[in-house]
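Re: your question from the hallway

Yes, I did run it. Sequences:
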Amino acid sequence: MKNKFILVTLTLIVLMISLSACAGGGRLAASGWPGITANGETAYISFNQHVYAVNLTNGLEIWRYPAEPDAKITFYAAPSLTENDQVIVGGYDNILYSLNVQNGNVNWKFEEATDRYIGSSLVSGDMIFSPSSDNDLFALNLDGQPVWTQPFVSKNSNWSQPTSDPNCECVYLASMDHSVHAIDPINGNGIWQSETLGGATVGTPAVSEDGKTLYIGTFINELVAIDTSNGNILWRFPTEGWVWASPVVDGDVLYFGDISGNFYAIDRNTQAILWNIQTGDDIVGTPLITDDGVYFTNEAGTLYALTKDGATRWTKNFEATLHTGPIATGDLILVATDESGLVLYAMDSEGAQKWMFSPSEE
Amino acid sequence: MWDAIITVFINVLLYIYDLLWNNFGLAIIFFTLLIRLITYPLNTRQMKSTQAMQELQTSEEWQKIQQKYKNDKEKLAQEQMRIYKEKGVSPFGSCLPTLIQFPIIIALYQSITRSLAVTPLQLLDLSKHITNGASLIPLNRDFLWMDLSQPERLYIFGFGLPLLAIVVAATSYLQTKLMTPTNPSGGSDQSAQMTKMMGLYMPLFMGWLAYSFPSGLAIYFITSNVASIVQYGLMGRLDWKNLLPKRSKVSE
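Structure:
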């Protein structure tokens, strides 16, 4: 009987440890990958417990917020920049922060959300549109005050950054409620809700240059084109896996990846596949299209640099997971790995490394 | 192997969720009952083993050796093993089936949290387990007053009452009490003391799990406890007398 007691006690302890390990200490742990924004001089990276400002000339840290880690504050959404020197970033603590670009001091906090911020804010002129997992889209002025009497409410969480288009005085919000919403930025009223996409979406819709079509990927293995005049679905392009990241429009070509590892370039008028590559691992980040060509990452840690015809220019493996898509700033291309902490790499368009930034431990 | 089990659990959960009007709370309850049905032979064996063990421990022969060798632990252990062997009762017969259920609890817990996927990494991980049912994502996390992805609290006048944790502890206690036959020795021997201790220890532990972890797990515990009580009741072995307060024995 004593043996039985010991056996049961040990099992309870193992069970407790196993459950705790999966839950990250009892609560569902905040987890994601780095979000990067840059303005030519400074890169702003949100990752886990900090937002970092990094000097793009030498890769040195300028500031971090908060200065000391706080278990209650973690970040996933990429920071957004305003014209009046604010860094806008939402946290997993349901708070939207405005930080000073120079020193990371808090300008203001917006605390009306009841769930975490996962999607980045859209800054458009003097307005900030912040999607929350509590189904709301908040519109604030640059002082952090609500502009609409009520937030726009979708039927499910909002994880994707909204987008706007100069052709249309509206904001497009792709929601986890399986639809895209067109919203009046003045009063927050819905203009239209798209036909059902059939699956959730976490990417930002890409807008065609003429503003007539939106493109968005879904979790039911499709890229969908939507008529911006009424929200009707124009066509659906089947993929092999979930389309997580935002597609990118470049002239008549749409570039995007899926989580089965396929990267596609398709003609947006005919939906014909111009070329595609199977990389063997999840593509989660939004691709980068520059005059030099196409850049994208996959989870296996490889950065691909291709010509716009799909020919490989070079590839570089970082031996760590890469979920964030590459971004371009000045002459640099930035990528951030996340497997064992943040490492930000800066390289030129030929893949030659200029510097790397890895935050020091406190 | 473990990943394959989780994948099966997640997909079965999603299938049930789809059938039950996209209600994840009902899906957990139904899935728990399904698991209980699958592990029915195991549970029955455990219950019978427990019964046999307790009958053995209340037998005259057992009581005699407790008295006879109370000062010789080694000899007592030898004699106990002899009786176990003679009666064909395994001392771990009631314990091992319980232990086998722990991996099921962990797998169920992981499938619940992974299915609810409230962070990007969790959602990305979920995408690798779903074979069919991506159109159901994101799952509806609301059930009654609860967010199934969070530990449950019922807010009354601003105070967060952990109602589910209390119900888990209470049903675990009820289960232990109703399924443990009265020990005529009055709980004086070591094994009875251990059983009594476990009877308190286990409900508190289960209550702590329900207090600290997503409420989906608490729903599993409550359903499982109630199912156990019902199953034992159907076998005609519930001991309602155990719920009544006992008078302390007057020394003779």
